[in-house]
Amino acid sequence: MSRTLQEIIDANPEAETFRFGDSKALCDEILALVRAGTKTATCEAARHYGPKGDTWPEVGRQDVALEWDGMPAVMIETVEVSTRRWSEMDAEFVAAQGEFRDLDHWREVYRPYFERTGGWSEDMKIMCERFRVVEDYAEGKS
Predict the structure, then answer these.
(1) What is the dihedral of CA 24, 26, 30, 35, to 10 degrees?
(2) pLDDT score of 3
(3) Which of 52, 106, 133, 138 is most exposed by smallest CB count within 10 Å?
């Protein structure tokens, strides 16, 4: 029996909801990597967090990643959060993101993403989060 998003949030009132990526295609691609266990880390421009933005991830908090259509996809638990600048990103963290061939590929893909979602600079701050999947809400998975 699948649960509704409201039932999941009612049972986990501290949980935030979010979507990976900024398009349906990217969201679907990233969720497939998360479900396969290939993607265990993510990052976002730090400017997206704070009083007028998203809540900063906290170790131990469980959040719900949504399908592009708003249906619950997976619950993840944050296991580590750090901040670094664009110029400080390293190959080890990039590999944990599961989407990129190497650090140069990450830079090639993420720079345009940051540019279209608020701006990019060499010294911009980036929130880096490691997570684990707690529950998969896809039919027949948990």
Answers:
(1) 30
(2) 86
(3) 52
User: Which domains does the chain show, CATH number per domain?
Assistant: 5-136 (3.10.400.10)
Instruction: Kindly report, residue by residue over 29-60, the tens digit of the pLDDT.
Output: 999 999 999 999 999 999 999 888 889 999 99
pTM confidence score: 0.91
Q: Give 10-73 as a DSSP string.
A: HH-TT--EE-SSSSHHHHHHHHHHHHHT---EEEEEGGGBSTTSBPPP-TT-EEEEEPTTS-EE
Do residues 43 and 129 lie in contact, with contact meaning Cβ atoms separated by under 8 Å? yes
Expressed in angstroms, the distance from the first to the final Cα of the chain is 11
Count the neighbouring beta carbons within 10 Å of the beta carbon of residue 135. 18
Alpha carbon of residue 54 to chain centroid? 12
Please name the residue that has the structure tokens 């529950």: 135
